[in-house]
Design brief:
This is SPFH domain-containing protein. It comes from Tepidiforma flava. InterPro entries: Band7/mec-2_domain, Band_7, Band_7/SPFH_dom_sf. With 312 residues, this protein is of the alpha+beta class. It contains eight helices and eight strands; from the N terminus they run H-E-E-E-E-E-E-E-H-H-H-H-E-H-H-H. The strands form three sheets. Strands 3-2-5 form a three-stranded antiparallel sheet. Helix 3 crosses helix 5, helix 6 crosses helix 7 and helix 7 crosses helix 8.
Amino acid sequence: MAGLIVLGVAGVIVLVLLFGSLFTVEQQTAAIVERFGKFRRVARPGLNVKIPLIERVAGRVNLRVQQLDVSVETKTLDNVFVHTIVAVQYMVIPDRVYDAFYRLDQPTVQITAYVFDTVRARVPKMELDDVFERKDEIAIAVKNELSGEMNEFGFQIVQALVTDIDPDKKVKESMNEINAAKRLREAAQERGEADKILKVKAAEAEAESKALQGQGIANQRRAIIDGLRDSVDQFQQSIAGVTPEAIMQLVLMTQHYDTVKEIGAASRANTIFVPYSPAGMSDFYSQIRDALIAANAATTQADVDRPDRSGM
């Protein structure tokens, strides 16, 4: 009976020791194995064996790419305080797990210190607008500084990015007001130019319209004069002894009565008063004749003064 108990206890001890000697390591992870407190080896992903009671897993090191966001407050050359967020992507070099585990206790604290030092050395030399425009230079400077220092401890700096630049709230409001005023000024200038173009085009169109209208009136008057001249010539050829003045009086009287007839036939005709005495008709003829002569002279002078457009 005692022998069975001893065998059972021994079996339990063996099982405990057996299972205690086996351990697993996850993918993209390395385990540090120590023997009596001294580094022994680095266990890779998979099933591993250690000597029970003699060796132990002191820790595990993450081999994935990790990111650390560092917020730095500093002042620019034009005395504006800004909060700059720098994202640092880093990883442990697989072949230097020992250095990463034993030589550096808190890597994030070290990285943060170097980021603070680099940003506060660069940004105070730039004005606020330059900080936005040259943020890539800041990121490259941070990466170069960290790569040289952290590589010694088994860390690789994959990338450094300036993800945000946040000035003081009052400064942002002032910048927004400046930009808004600039946009309004540009919009006003554009509206002014548009109005100017519309007015110029309208003036050009009006001038061209008046020129064409004047040309049409001149052609109309010229046609009237030519028609009257032809009528006088035909009348003299048909009836001998009639003077041109008598013929013109007859033609003008005929056109006058035709005009009065058209006015009377219109639906909205107004009342007009014209003299119908013989003396009045003579005076009326003199006025029309003088007007036609003046119009003919003005038309002839306009034709002389008008530039020749055929060569344009």
